[in-house]
Amino acid sequence: MRLSKLQKGLWGFAAIAIVGFVWLQISSRGEQQTGDPAFRADFELTDHQGMVQTDEYFTGRWMLIFFGFANCPDVCPTTLAEIAAVMDALGTDATQVQPLFISIDPERDTQQALAEFIPQFDANIIGLTGTADQIERTSKTFRIYYEKIEEAASPNGYTIGHSSQLFLFDPQGGYAGAWTYGTPTEEIVSDLRARM
Hints:
By secondary structure, this protein is of the alpha+beta class. It has 5 helices and 9 strands. The protein starts with a helix and ends with a helix.
């Protein structure tokens, strides 16, 4: 039985597709084993007491990191209250964890503004802010999204849309995981205890 040129072309295309599929499978297995380049906490910002802080200062402790802004109407205060509840639930293990709130609103979230805002939730949470350039660099390092949105009813006429996950970094500053907004406190505490 002789194959037409069209049939030969189709068989050739099928062979190329099979080889390509096999190559993708082998390639993706290699990526799963080696993983992406390490995602690490990396920042140099000013805390709500006026001290310059870097990620290296927190080496040896787990870091819970949340990005937000003090004028946030719901997500940020809810998450900070949840972080406070997590710290309470950890009891004596809380000394191994440092919660950090990194502002994405350097225009309004001055050191003084954070000094008034952060202690409303938990004395152990450290608020961090910086210049617009520092915040932009930090957001790129952490791969988070934020965007200034005009809103006449908000202070200074704007609000900020932003990523709302709670990050966890290990005592060496390596990415350990994240929880989406609304994850129950009990689930976060259980996950943290299992890792610590």
